[in-house]
Amino acid sequence: MLAVSSPGFVVFAGLLVGLWYRLQPKKRWGLMLAASALFYLSLDWQGYVILLLCSLLVWQCALRAREKTGWFAGGLLFAFVPLLVLKYYIEGAGGLQAIFGLRLWQPAILQPLGLGYFTLQLVSYLVDVRRGKLPAQKSFARVLCFASFFLSITQGPFNRYGELMPQMEAPTRWSGERAWQGVMRCFWGYFKKVVVADRAAVVVAAAFGNPAAFDRTQLLFAALLYPFQLYADFSGYTDIVLGVGQMLGLSLPENFRQPFLSATVKEFWSRWHMSLSRWLKDYVYIPLGGSRCSAARRDANLVLTFLVSGIWHGAGFTYMLWGFLHGLFQALEDHLPWRRAITKGRARLVGIAGTFCIFAFALVIFRADSLTNAARYFYGIVHNGGHDVLSNYWELGLTTRQEQIFLFAGVLILIASDLLQEFRVPVLKKIGAAPRPVRWAVYEVAIFAFLLMGYFLGGGGFLYARY
To answer: How confident is the model over 308-337, as pLDDT tens digits?
Structure first.
């Protein structure tokens, strides 16, 4: 198994880096194609067959999409059919069966790994060819290399063909400094995952599993902790893959930029899952008319764009409502007279707190199994008495007081790191410029903290791998 969260991935990535610089630049994309196939096949061979077939059909349609609209429409259909059938239909059929008792055909097919990601990347390739931004590629292997790129296939970031593939053949030479920076970024990603996300997941799963069993302070704590769990998990994965890309000399899109320091919801989405926001802007929002239209039409475009984002996450009503709310909040912000004042000076602190609360509120709906479960959670926050969040830590799945302390410490380290990055404090450069004894002392302390604070038992895969 070569899952990013497994030790096998570290070995796999190290071997790839070693082979990468032994090959001539023009042959490296072939190595990446083989590495991506090995990675995917080790995790989901059935999904790879679907990816292969989908890429083949889109590639064929793209060859003729520039001149003939029918081929372009066919390519879009072939790109979206696996997503529509294997994700939305199966989820939707299950929901209709549960609500109305309808007997609908539900094929017992697992959702292919990274289905939502390779679908949107193939769509971006096809649309860019149609718009004339890219020449249609005659080599199917190159299109498959792009679609199956293993560093992005499970959780992004979303790449563009014209940005990623030329880098595969760039005459990049080995750089020890760049490789070491990549290693440190990978380490920070694993720290986020193991120290913060996996331990926070225990608390969040307990609270959302049975809201009636917890008091309001425990439910509020879990609701405020879930954004940090999701952020540490998702951005941790991004740090790992961008770190590996850095070792290979590949510049991949950043996906996060201190999102919890955003003063508005619109600013938040310019900092959170940035590659998805960019995809939605280029292929949904702008084609709908963007902001070059009436205020009412602009608001509708925003809501529709984020409704698409919600539907991309899943077919459940919780995802749709979550996406709708984020579009609605941004549309409302555009009409507030103090929308600019809230982003400046001390008022920005109020904006940051308000934006985080809005995000946490919407995430309760996103995280809940159903709208009923979300309603029960909010009901518990309002009606369940008690204040045991700091005392009865075992009720939330934490085994010792030490675990509770490690959880708080991990979140504080995450916040401190974002603050340092926001104020552009060059921590890594300062560490690198320090005398060797000091530098290695810092590294040893970091490794010790990772081993001491890490939640190594029971930690699962990355959250966004299922999207």
So the answer is: 999 998 878 899 999 999 999 999 998 988
CA–CA distance, 59 with 144 (Å, rounded to integer): 9
Q: What is the pLDDT of residues 47-66, one digit of tens each?
A: 899 999 999 999 999 999 99
Task: Report in angstroms the alpha-carbon separations of 464 from 113, 238, 299, 314.
Answer: 11, 11, 28, 11
Residues 260 and 345 in one domain: yes
Res 102: pLDDT: 46
Range of the domain at 214: 177-264+339-462
SS (H, E, C) 13-45: HHHHHHHHCCCCHHHHHHHHHHHHHHHHHHHCH
Question: Which residue type does 46 have?
Answer: Q
Does residue 315 fall inside a structural domain? no
CA distance 286 to 192: 35
Cis before residue 426, ω within 30 degrees of 0? no
Which parts of the chain sit beneath pLDDT 50?
96, 99-105
Buried/exposed code over 309-348 (b: 16+ C-beta within 10 A; e: otherwise): bbbbbbbbbbbbbbbbbbbbbbbebeeeeeeeebbeeeeb
The 3-state DSSP class for residue 388 equals coil
